[in-house]
Amino acid sequence: MKKQLLDNASDTSLDRVDGAVKVTGTATYSAEYLVPGLVHAVLVTSTIAKGSITAIESREAEAVPGVLAVISHLNAITVPGWPERKQPAERVPVGTALRVFYDPLIYFDGQPVAMVVAGTREQAVHAASLVRVTYQQETHQTHFEKNIGKAGVALNVQRSKNSPFQDYQRGEAAKSENTEVRIEAEYTIPTQHHQPLEPHAIIAVWEADDKLTVYDKNQGVKSAQGQLAQAFKLPRENVQVISKYIGGAFGSGIRVWPHTMAAVMAAKQLKRPVKLVLGREQMFTSVGYRPYTVQKINIGATKDGRLIGIVHEGTGQTSMYEEHLERTVLASRTLYACPHVATRYRLLPLDVNTPTWMRGPGDATGMFALESAMDELAFALKMDPLEFRLKNYAESDPERNLPWSAKSLRECYELGAEKFRWNNRMQAPRSVTQNGLLMGYGMASSLYGFHRHPSKVRAVIQADGSVIVQSATMDIGPGTGTAMTRIAAKVLGVNAKKIRFELGHSALPDAPGQNGSATIPSVGSAVHVACEALKTRLVALAREMSERFKSGGQVVVRNGQVYGSVDDKDGVSYADILKYHHLNELEVTEESKSGAERDQYSMYSFGCHFVEVLVSPLTGEVRVTRVVTCADVGAIINYKTARSQSIGGVVGGIGMALMEHSEMDHRFGRYVTTDFAGYHIPVHADIPPIEVYYIDKPDVHVNPIGSKGLGEIAIVGVAAAIANAVFHATGKRVRELPITPDKLV
Ligand code: MOS
User: 237, 363, 543, 686: most buried by Cβ count inside 10 Å?
Assistant: First the structure.
């Protein structure tokens, strides 16, 4: 059974260390902490997309039994880190995060305008429905296509010469125009929302006026601590952020959003602990989303399939008050050996809330375009799409002219193709049917940059030989604790059951939040380094106990014991070492970060996906029937959880390709798909068998554990592979996601 589950994995993987508490419902999520005196808050949100509040009638709401307050800009406390309110209110300069309950101005539909706090959530929900807000409305612009002419270079980019989002050119611009075979096409992805099953939630608790504890769903307790400390002008240590268990996040929790500030403000104002849980409909406007993006690609090659030029332009949506920038066009500079490349990236500000990173941010969007265009060009060349990619394989980074730290994308292609049986593919579209359904094969590549941030880890061995490893890192779902336990167990030679990894608390040693696929590369390295340091201390203490351990490099650790050599039969246990030295525990704290190699090599994770689809020629329904995904992310730390992460990425990619679409009614500038009846995500019945393979070769240049990020490349390219398979099945190229039946019949 286990073997079948693990594809090409060894069966020594750890089960999730927190699996049991999660599936038995005993893991405590942010909204579930029992805090005495807790009261409940519910947001009232704007029903116009642009304008200002003229009045808030709250008497009826205040009369509801149990209601403690109706908070709005009319009576909210002053946040010390915010500038003094202007009279009359002025629209903020670009680059200012939304300040909740600050002034009467409305920037988007769904903006929090008031908040009811009551003894129970039911009382608060009812009272919130009675708050009457009147507005002076201004004309809003939310329609991307109608406004695309207003897109421009982001101010942030204009100000920063070194911004990666600057226009880029190598070789001659527009060289693709004169090539023998050329494709020019436009690709669109709609706004998509993260949709974690656990909505964002917070409990804010003030102790006196200057000590704040928040239980908040987010992806970085340290950055949330910093942002809250800054807003309330408190020393960092006076603010503690706890976020131990997270029911999915995908990027929606990377920053502190207005609803978190709202709850913290209310708790301060009322001197009561306040809980706020967003409703599903509020998840569309209270936290960010993957921005609506239109891309143009002009790509050309010689008749024998050598890429000559790529021009890749992308325009993404942002809000009127902030610029959200992402890597949309960047992969086109890096992925293939192509002499002439130009990229341009533009932003279109609209009367919407600010977008944010969503799994594979920028790259998932950009690679849909690039890898669709590569497929279109392969068909125009009458070449196998995989052969075409291999022909243009980049042996070194063509953008930075640097060697790769490691790259086994070729091996990924080969392994994936073999497992998928890609060789069975017929070149001509619409040439295979099965039970009256059209069958197609598609593939796409995946890449994602390497991120490693300075990370601290404390490792403590206790009198009984058990180990506690701590870091203020996070687990938004991939199984951080499990992977870190595996690393610690391996270094220390201690059974994983005797190790406890603690995370998700801002008082723990400083570590980055969980984003950008950086956790294992960053924190995993620090766990490795800290446990190595602890081992060194233990071995030194053992040497003081007996001559046997003085054999220099021969000493080994296993089963929680130090041995004089590999063949040594008698070891001394860590517990006995501590006892001998009269130590209750032994502790080390270490930091790990990138060194000079970061600038000497180009570091990326790579991968590819192979997809089979069946399409009904009558209804246009697409079913993904088989997926093989293969990744080169250096060393795999724990196969079982890695595999789950890869599967999750593919599932997200199936949603992106076939279902996900946040639809707006532009008459009101309001999303209409604000529940799971309207916003479709894949369910189990939509998901075929997904085979996962890894090259599992350590990248010796990236960090001491040889491991790169997996979270993002798992989704990057999946939508293109599906779109390419749909083309192969039907002969119809869909360049606007999602590929719904109406686009195929
Ligand atoms: Mo990821 S979008 O960096 O959570």
Answer: 363
Question: Do 33-139+197-249+253-286 and 453-593 fold alike per CATH?
Answer: yes
> How far apart, in Å, do the first and last CA atoms of the chain sit?
42
Instruction: Pull the structure tokens for residue 123.
Output: 């009382």
CATH of 453-593, one of 3.90.640.20, 3.40.190.10, 3.10.20.600, 3.30.365.10: 3.30.365.10
Catalytic annotation, residues: 712
CA of 703 to the centre of ligand 1 (A): 21
Ligand 1 center from residue 361 Cα (angstroms): 7
Class of domain 33-139+197-249+253-286: alpha beta
Tens digits of residue pLDDT in 73-127: 999 999 999 999 999 999 999 999 999 999 999 999 999 999 999 999 999 999 9
Q: What is the phi/psi pair of residue 552, to 5°?
A: 60, -125
Asked if residue 341 has pLDDT above 50, the reply is yes
Domain ranges in the chain?
A: 1-7+408-449+604-745, 33-139+197-249+253-286, 141-196+290-401, 453-593
- What mean pLDDT is predicted for residues 522-539? 98
According to DSSP, residue 523 is labeled I
Q: 243, 357, 363, 480: which to mutate for ligand 1, most atoms within 8 A of CB?
A: 357
Q: Residue 139 burial (CB < 10 Å; 0-12/13-18/19+)?
A: exposed
Per-residue pLDDT at 332? 98
For 401-458, how does the pLDDT look when each residue is reduced to its tens digit (9 = 90+)?
Answer: 999 999 999 999 999 999 999 999 999 999 999 999 999 999 999 999 999 999 999 9
User: Which residues are CB-neighbours of 310 under 8 A, at least 6 positions away?
Assistant: 176, 297, 298, 299, 332, 336, 338, 340, 341, 342, 370
- What is the structure's pLDDT at 11? 53
User: Exposed (0-12), middle (13-18) or buried (19+): which is 480, by Cβ within 10 Å?
Assistant: buried
Chain centroid to Cα 356, Å, comes to 10
pLDDT averaged over every residue in the chain:
96
Looking at this predicted complex, what is its ipTM? 0.97
Chosen CATH of 141-196+290-401 out of 3.30.365.10, 3.30.200.20, 3.40.630.30, 3.40.50.2300: 3.30.365.10
Q: Tokens representing 270? A: 């009322």
Q: Which residues line ligand 1 (CB under 6 A)?
A: 219, 250-251, 254, 357-359, 361, 515-516
Report yes or no: 470 and 585 within 8 Å, Cβ to Cβ: no
CATH 3.30.365.10 fits 1-7+408-449+604-745, yes or no: yes
User: What's the pLDDT score for residue 6?
Assistant: 43
**How far, in Å, from the CA of 421 to the mean position of ligand 1?**
32
Q: What is the pLDDT of residue 407?
A: 98
